[in-house]
């Protein structure tokens, strides 16, 4: 099917109304490369980078620079289709598809919102899946595709590279798409989220599949592999057991080693996923330690690119988060504080807030001060210990849960959230770091890039414009993504307009609707979120597609390859 589609691609130009904003990123003279490595530190504001750099320098005086520092080249304005502040789903989708999208949308065209859209959007394309640069590289040039991350695999950023949905929370729609969408290497979190059918499909198609098996991954010689750790997300780098979970750097090196076996080249996305999670929690320890772990992964990617000579590297957050600042009003005269005064306390933490919470809830209350001395570098005051005892999330408190009261906690120590939230607030109180919010923020984010011939994007660009650079690196114009979207994600009502067809509703809560199309000599049975279509009245023939079929319940439409109609003739 791949070869057939490649033959008709230059001849078949489907009409597509472009609502894509004109790009200003310079692509003239950019030489295509064999491999692209895109590294995304999720939810990383520039202040996070600055604090992490200072902390590294404080802890390691011989290392004042980050791996990314020599490659910083500009900034990126991030946004959704109808809002200047976006979440991970639409903002990473911008990098992957070249189109702005809405909060929660995974590589999917948004409905138009004429009064608020930042750029005019085409209402006729609402909910259409959008081909990503990773999918295009695989389809057009047989590139291998790899994903590395520390969140669960159907989470927004990895999903944006390999799945399509208007609802980022619909893991039951996203997970099977990722398993069926031709990914060569997947390493990250979510061992419990891989459906049985998806795992069986992967194994039947020559993949190695590992769940919480670090040695299995390390010993594996198969260029096609899924390795998942943690029931959902992986641990923060500072909290992880190195005998059970790999570092982001090791995951990156493993993916590169496997992907480079493909002679046609590869696309690899690496996400520092939980920088964003720590930012939501206002945990400066989690933010800085996971960013430094991400920077080490960048070092591995840049090292490979420099030695390989055919690889471009782009490093860019999807958006900012938390309004973090070094310097806060509660620290009077903070602009005169020394390095020791600003960073010594932060340098003493050996666990993130969730890591400390885990220790406190698995060890007796008699060890509280020992835990804080060893893993945080201080002892609790009487007021802080009282606040901990009265927190409902502390399992080992000597105070029965029904006798605990927020009224007994000093207002400055009461966060009202989980035990991790309480500990994040406690950690922050020991520093001169401040936060304005627990949500995403709209400032520009940094851009860093490496190209073997030095043709990198300079200055400030929007997140949609950066897609043009990625497409050029693979040797095609980004408008070709529109043609591919028309070819592979056409409406079933158009594809099968000359044939009787019916959507059979789902019969159970976990079931999905099925599209049945009848021709004179053949019948197609099409199920969503997979690349397998059955032909024949008894399903005796299997057709393996080059992309997945997507069903959208909002408009009761299956989006699928236009060439499927040819199987009915």
Overview of the structural elements:
With 569 residues, this protein is of the alpha/beta class. It folds into 3 domains: 374 residues, 3-Layer(aba) Sandwich (Alkaline Phosphatase, subunit A), CATH 3.40.720; 110 residues, no CATH class; 79 residues, Copper Amine Oxidase, Chain A, domain 1 (2-Layer Sandwich). The strands form 5 sheets. A 10-stranded mixed β-sheet has the order 5-6-4-3-7-1-8-13-2-14, sandwiched between helices. Helix 9 packs parallel to helix 11. The protein is globular and about 80 Å long. It starts with a helix and ends in a 9-residue tail after the last strand.
**Cα gyration radius (Å):** 25 Å
Helical content stands at 25-40%
Beta-strand content bin: 15-25%
The CATH topology label of the largest domain is Alkaline Phosphatase, subunit A
Distance N to C terminus: 16 Å
Mean pLDDT: 94
Q: What is the helix tally? A: 19
CATH class of the largest domain: Alpha Beta
**CATH homologous superfamily descriptor of the largest domain:** Alkaline Phosphatase, subunit A
Overall 3D form: globular
Number of DSSP E strands: 22
Q: How many separate domains make up the residues?
A: 3
Structural class: alpha/beta
CATH architecture of the largest domain: 3-Layer(aba) Sandwich
Strand order of the largest sheet: 5-6-4-3-7-1-8-13-2-14
Largest sheet composition: 10 strands, mixed
């Amino acid at each position: 099917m791949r070869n057939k589609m490649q033959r008709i691609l230059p001849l078949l130009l489907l009409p597509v109304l472009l609502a894509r904003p004109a790009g200003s990123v310079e692509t003239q003279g950019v030489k295509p490369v064999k491999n692209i490595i895109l590294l995304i530190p999720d939810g990383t504001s520039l202040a996070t980078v600055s604090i992490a750099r200072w902390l590294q320098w404080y802890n390691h005086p011989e290392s004042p620079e980050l791996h990314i520092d020599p490659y910083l080249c500009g900034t990126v304005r991030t946004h959704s289709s109808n809002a200047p502040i976006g979440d991970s789903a639409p903002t990473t989708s911008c990098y992957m598809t070249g189109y702005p999208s809405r909060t929660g949308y995974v590589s999917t065209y948004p409905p138009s919102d004429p009064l608020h859209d930042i750029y005019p959007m085409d209402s006729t394309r609402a909910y259409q899946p959008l081909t990503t640069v990773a999918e295009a590289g695989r389809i057009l040039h047989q590139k291998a595709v790899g994903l590395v991350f520390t969140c669960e695999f159907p989470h927004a950023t990895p999903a944006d590279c390999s799945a399509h949905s208007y609802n980022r929370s619909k893991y039951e729609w996203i997970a099977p798409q990722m398993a069926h969408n031709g990914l060569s290497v997947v390493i990250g979190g979510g061992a419990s989220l891989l459906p049985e059918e998806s795992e069986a499909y992967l194994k039947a198609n020559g993949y190695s599949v590992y769940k919480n098996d670090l040695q299995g991954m390390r010993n594996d010689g198969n260029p096609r592999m899924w390795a998942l750790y943690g029931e959902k997300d992986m641990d923060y780098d500072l909290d992880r057991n190195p005998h059970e979970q790999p570092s982001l750097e090791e995951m990156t090196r493993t993916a590169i080693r496997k992907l480079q076996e493909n002679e046609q080249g590869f696309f690899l996305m690496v996400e520092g996923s939980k920088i964003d999670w720590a930012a939501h929690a206002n945990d400066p320890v989690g933010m800085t330690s996971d960013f430094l772990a991400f920077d080490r992964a960048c070092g591995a990617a840049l090292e490979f690119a420099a030695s390989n000579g055919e690889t471009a590297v782009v490093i860019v957050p999807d958006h900012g988060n938390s309004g973090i600042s070094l310097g806060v009003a509660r620290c009077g005269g903070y602009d005169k504080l020394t390095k020791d005064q600003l960073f010594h306390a932060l340098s003493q933490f050996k666990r993130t807030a969730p890591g400390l919470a885990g220790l406190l809830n698995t060890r007796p209350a008699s060890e509280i001060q020992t835990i804080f001395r060893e893993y945080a570098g201080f002892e609790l005051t009487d007021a802080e210990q009282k606040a901990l005892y009265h927190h409902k999330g502390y399992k080992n408190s000597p105070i029965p849960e029904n006798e605990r009261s927020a009224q007994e906690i000093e207002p400055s120590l009461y966060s009202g959230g989980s035990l991790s939230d309480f500990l994040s607030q406690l950690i922050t109180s020991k520093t001169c770091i401040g936060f304005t919010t627990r949500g995403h923020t709209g400032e520009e984010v940094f851009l860093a890039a490496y190209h073997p011939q030095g043709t990198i994007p300079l200055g400030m660009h929007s997140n949609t414009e950066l897609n043009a650079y990625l497409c050029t690196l693979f040797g095609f114009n980004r408008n070709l993504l529109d043609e591919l979207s028309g070819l592979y994600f056409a409406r079933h009502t158009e594809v099968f307009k000359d044939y009787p067809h019916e959507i059979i509703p789902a019969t159970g809560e976990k079931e999905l609707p099925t599209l049945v199309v009848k021709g004179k000599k053949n019948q197609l049975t099409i199920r969503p979120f997979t690349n397998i279509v059955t032909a024949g009245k008894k399903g005796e023939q299997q057709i393996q597609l080059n992309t997945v079929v997507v069903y959208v319940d909002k408009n009761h439409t299956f989006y699928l390859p236009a060439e499927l109609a040819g199987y009915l003739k």
